[in-house]
Amino acid sequence: MITVYNPADGSVVGEAPQMDAAAVRAAVDRTCAAFPVWSRQLARDRSALLRRWFDLVSADRRAFAEIMVKENGKCLSEALGEIDYGLGFIEWYAEEAKRVYGDTIPSHAAGASVLVTKEPVGPTAAITPWNFPFMMICRKIATALAAGCTMIIKPSEETPLTAYKLLDYARQAGIPEGVFEMVTGDPKEIGEIFISDRRIRKISFTGSTAVGKLLASASGATLTRMTLELGGNAPFIVFDDADFDEAVAGAVAAKLRNSGQVCISPNRFYVQDAIYDRFVAAIAEKVWGIEVGDGMREDFVVGPMINQAGVDKVAALVADACDHGARVLTGGKLDALGGLFYEPTVLADMDERAKAAQTEIFGPVLPVYRFTTEEEVISRANNTDYGLVAYAYTRDLGRAFRLSRELEAGMVILNSGSVGTASVPFGGVKESGYGREGSHYGIEEYVDVKYVLMAGLDRRH
Ligand code: ADP
User: Fold this and answer.
1) Catalytic residue (one of 78, 229, 408, 431)
2) Contact call for residues 393 and 247 (beta carbons, < 8 A)
3) pTM across the whole model
4) Residue 317: half-sphere exposure toward Cβ, Cα within 13 Å
5) Cβ neighbour number for residue 11 with a 10 Å cutoff
6) Catalytic residue among 263, 343, 431, 445
7) What is the pLDDT of residues 4-19, one digit of tens each?
8) How far away, in angstroms, is 417 Cα from ligand 1 center?
9) Helices in 307-396 by DSSP H: which ranges?
10) Tell me: the pLDDT tens digits for 377-420?
11) C-alpha pair distances (Å), 367 with each of 220, 238, 328
């Protein structure tokens, strides 16, 4: 078995199966065997099952949230927010299942008809990370099932308890074995089994760019379709014409969610000259007032990091930034609680040569850079291999349009620090991956377009 620990105090929370290759292959077999039946089931019936699952989980959202707090460390209010976010995908795709429309095209030949249909791609697989143990699974499985695909999921071995609870509720809702399978064990071995099996027609992966690249390379052998949600290095740009208080609130909320362990977390704050000093002082004051603590508390706290490697990475990036001249305005060290609790940190006067400018920090650190002109900041913001999300605050309409066009990101968020919901296409460009999740675009990743020509229709026999 795999032991699951609480990052807040190191206590044992539970365990999950350490499945060997034979057990994983058997689960893949079940996923493939279920596909012909599931894909031909009426969309209305698939929709009803998703809806029933949504209702069952909704009725127990607090129990799900508490498990998540214990295995992930995020605070209860955030966990409840994640449950609603994840449930939103199940609800949305229960509705979309009925609307996977095809097309007809005016025929190019006499006595013929052209149909375009959308067929589910086949059995699919997914690999999900620990930072959103609930939502990531909902987002993938709900889309796959709505499209008529079956799916096998490998959740993160750091947070498998939420995942298995979701599976349990899916079974209670009547989602059969094979249609939704789950495995845990050796990530590399499981990834190889998924990708080398020609029957698995698509893999949806959320995680690091390094692992995403490994999977994308391996997919060359089987041409398995991929959706890759990888790392980010989000710029958060504040112009001097911005609504100052909104920008301060947006910056801090966007950054400290999940202790900064989020792929869309702002990683570089660019603040324009005229408001720079006021802005860094304002965020430092706000961040200073935020408490660190065990996520089981009802109020908002910044919880622990997921593991020691996460803490070490943040500490090293902060030390390196200071070596490059950054000033620590608040935080900058392990919290008095010790363990995996790192203090929310504001670093002013960042230098772009610091490692944090090109590394996903994945911790509660706000590094602030100064800029002068729009052209300059766009170029600096785009100076990264990543392209997941870019945030900007401005009240100038023309500038807002220019930013939306010129920032190299799959998502541009203007005058808000909040990105996700089920009805919008989530995803990146460049080394942040490809493919989209959520919205009607998300379902396109799970269907193949089929062109059907029916000729000879004008001959009566
Ligand atoms: P993170 O830094 O968020 O943990 P990872 O990319 O390491 O990012 O992990 C994301 C998911 O990918 C997890 O479920 C993890 O177990 C899985 N994973 C890690 N290494 C591999 C691999 N070599 N092949 C397939 N999956 C992997």
Assistant:
1) 229
2) yes
3) 0.97
4) 27
5) 9
6) 263
7) 999 999 999 999 999 9
8) 27
9) 308-323, 374-381
10) 999 999 999 999 999 999 999 999 999 999 999 999 999 999 98
11) 38, 13, 9
